[in-house]
Amino acid sequence: MNAPLPLKQWLSPARPDETPIAWGDKQRWTLGQLRRDVARLQAWLRQQNAQRWALCFDNSYLFIVALLATLGAGKTPVIPGHRRLALLEEQQALFEGLLSDEPMSWQGPFHCVTSSDAASPAPLAAEAITDSQPLELFTSGSTGQPRRIVKSIASLDREAGLLASRFAGRLHHCRVVASVIPLHLYGLTFRIFLPMALGLPLHAETIRYAEQLSALSDRYRYLFVSSPAFLKRLDHRLTPPRLAMLLSAGGAMGQQEAAAAQAWCGIWPDEIYGSTETGVLAWRSREHTSSPWRPFPGVAFTAREESFIAHSPLIDSPEGVQLDDILHFDASGAFHLAGRRGRVVKIEEKRISLCDVERRLLALDGVRDAAALCVTRNGRQTVGALLVLDDTQPEAWQGQRGRALQLKWRQALRPWLEPVAIPRYWRVVDAIPVNTMDKRVYTQLQELFNETA
Fold this sequence. Notes:
Blueprint: E1 20-23, E2 28-30, H1 31-45, E3 52-56, H2 60-72, E4 76-79, H3 85-90, E5 97-100, E6 110-112, E7 134-140, E8 146-152, H4 153-167, E9 174-178, H5 185-198, E10 202-203, H6 210-214, E11 221-226, H7 228-232, E12 243-249, H8 255-265, E13 270-275, E14 279-285, E15 294-295, E16 300-304, E17 307-311, E18 321-322, E19 325-329, E20 335-340, E21 344-347, E22 350-353, H9 354-362, E23 367-377, E24 380-389, H10 394-397, H11 400-413, E25 425-428, H12 442-446
Parallel strand pairs: 1-10, 3-4, 3-5, 4-7, 5-6, 9-11, 11-12, 12-13, 24-25
Antiparallel strand pairs: 1-2, 7-8, 13-14, 14-15, 16-17, 17-18, 19-20, 21-22, 23-24
Helix pairs in contact: 1-2, 4-5
């Protein structure tokens, strides 16, 4: 295996222009095209006063163009984690300009990034991209406010190298396809950095349906980067692609889903455990129900009161990072996950801040108080909302009008929340119950959502 290529060498002149980089349904991109597109965008960026640029892309190739051009122009790339315009406007203090692969009604510096065969200017004289340049990601904090995570380019390169040491032998001559977007660390790492480091052509478009996966050319073998939510929806009547490896992350996969995926495509999924704050921490194969998580080299965990602290070559802080998960270790140092602490939950691989859901509920017209919690029905986790309404609303909740009110609330929440974070179940009460210390006991609130005969 060749040494993984660091980001600052992705455009290296030592590599031929014909090197394949990415493909889509209607287009193919080579390294020569990437150089021209980066040079064109970099020239535009260097004329802009804005320093911090939000990258809001679905297309992986254009994301790479924006990432390299932003860094090459001496700017800071910011990945807000979504492309919802209303939320971007609310969060505009986090960045100064916006780059996207689709037009947006953005009131500020904006550029819609495209790929062009037209002659591009030569790259402007600029300092080379350095290992220490930052990339910023934002994720849901425990308070519901976006939490800023700064990653150096060196750290992201180290992560790709760590993964290459474990998986590169299985990926020779593969192509990379994904059902996850590059706006979170999982997609950024496996859909962007890993294929670029290993010189593997990547699919620019997001796989959203099993039919797209089945339609992939059987001339190639693929690494499919996915999630339990997508794998649960596979249509096993379709013909599977030639998969060399199937990766899943974002949430634990049930053994039934793992076995069904293996029966369809012929290989067992590998799962990745980690977070935006920590990077990758561990992996496991789902061949057996009891398969434990095995830490990557250099990763260690220490117990502190009721939580665990992760230490890793990918974590710059010597204090490590406190985990939201509860871990149970065996004698070999492998571990199993035993639930989450706090009010950040995983629903269909999305990290949902229940505090943020509550904040949005409180902003609804007529809502005086609110509580959000996980509700499990038929093995599926969703969000439930417990509301206290002001004096103008209780009558509107009764009968059929209550359903119309729920629809109105859902529509009002849609610009702000992930679809899986919008409450599916609603309850209205006179007051949200508290204990003798005037604190909410969410296990008791859960009882209000129990199904009745």
